[in-house]
Amino acid sequence: MLRWHLQQGRQAIPKSVTPSRIAENFDVFDFALTTDQLGAIDALDTGVRGGPEPEHITRENFGLEIPEA
Q1: Quick one: where's region Disordered (predicted)?
Q2: Cα torsion through 22, 31, 5, 35, rounded to 10
Q3: Closest to 1 in 3D by CA, of 18, 20, 21
Q4: Which of 1, 10, 14, 68 has its CA 20 to 30 A from that of 20?
Q5: Residues 3, 37: contact at Cβ < 8 Å?
């Protein structure tokens, strides 16, 4: 999925704490997905979000304090 995001010009922020998984996340720059592979991943889109709507992600809703820089 990381390669798909990068090839589509999207930003991806992977999360991992396991050293082997972190290394795997960096191992996406020495290959490219084919047009068929990109199309197969694109076809998985169901049009349904898997998380909260962006406008609902607020400090008030999630109760997180954002420290001053």
Answers
A1: 47-69
A2: -150
A3: 21
A4: 10
A5: no
